[in-house]
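Sanity check

After download, print the first record. It should look like this:
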Amino acid sequence: MSDELAMMTATEMLRLFRAKKLSPVEATKATLDRIRRHDSKVNAFRFVAAKEAMRAARESEARWMKGEPKGLVDGVPTTIKDQWLTKGWSTLRGSLLVDKKGPWNEDSPQVARLREHGAVLLGKTTMPEQGWKGVTDCALTGISRNPWNPEKTCGGSSGGAAIAAAAGFGALNLGSDGAGSIRMPAAFCGVFGLKGTFARVPAYPYGTLPMCSHSGPLVRTVADGALMYTVMTEPDPRDWLAVPYDARDYRVGLEDGVKGLRVAYSRTLGYAKVDREVAAIVDRAAKVFADLGAIVEEKDPGFKNPYEPFVAYYNAAIAVSYERAGGDKVARRMDPGYVRMAKQGKRYTAKDLLDAWDARHNLGRQMSLFHQRYDILLTPQLALAAFDAGLEFPKGRGMKSWFDWSPFTYPFNFTMQPAASVPCGLTRAGLPVAIQVVTARYREDLAFRAARAYESANPFPMPGVSKLGKAKRSR
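Expected structure tokens:
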């Protein structure tokens, strides 16, 4: 029964809280028990604040007993990626160089909204140093692993959050995405993840990558994603870039389906190489949208690979964060890959960065025009299934960095568009594959609708306790 409660969706928990058939204390105890029994095998958490969580759960229980819930997610077990400030807790961002003493006296906007709505905060989830790569390992917390097969990577940089979602360590899990860091681990771990329109969710402090970093949910169902996103999008004056608040409830219209929507399906974006088995699974998923009544056409959006301008922008930003952390004086205490990327970033000139900015403008304009014709763009989420844990990229495939296996993620950080990772099948080896749903800016509602339509036809499976039970230790 404990495992059943821990794997319950936030939406179902709230229904049972309301009916007084389940208590936030029971839900939190079950989740903490599952973490205690299984996290050593997958390493989702930097720390778990069990006593604080139980205190918050008891307070939530008292509110529900009086019929006076604090907000939309009152009593729901929730995790926070170690990138976001959380009052009273250190935020180390996967680094040995951040001073644990703080002071840690404020919440980031996303955390503040979740707390205000009564979420039971469980602890901080793992990430690579400063979120620099698409897998999750660092000297601070060790290697985080995939709950479907702990020999494989969970992806990153929101790896701990994706593990928590898949493994029943939290019904709601807060991640961030500067180049795919929600969608990559969501795809590898077989959960739903969404990055919305840039600045729809207020952010403070901003991530390493200016004007590209988003935050969003990693959850087990689309309904939970819409619920969490509704809370996260509430306004905060600390983000001066935030778009005007429209008070939208993203659960409304969730079941409207995709009938009549104009959908472009691009298997490669015109330039990517995708593993044959992954491509076949995503092909079948795209056909489901047609079966559900969407008007699906195979169509590439027509842009060239934006790898070069994006990497210029990305590496230059890493170089700045590297210098702010102490640079060469402390490089021996940093992830060697992070140092490598920072040194590459130092080579770019102001002209290089302005050229990259121009390329970004052109790409954004092109996608804006593309969405005049198509409501939705479907692509594979990743070019492959999860590979061995502890590696930045798989061996023996001619790859040089994690960007080589994530060609479908970073273009849509550049364009600031909503993009959702939707689980769509398993490989013969039992590893998740995902399809990506991309919409025009400010149309998260369509991304949620499309993802829910697919989910309704093909509910997302989750790894069982038996898989976690066979896992090795994370470090």
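If your output differs, re-run the checksum step. Summary of this record's structure: The two ends are 30 Å apart (CA to CA).
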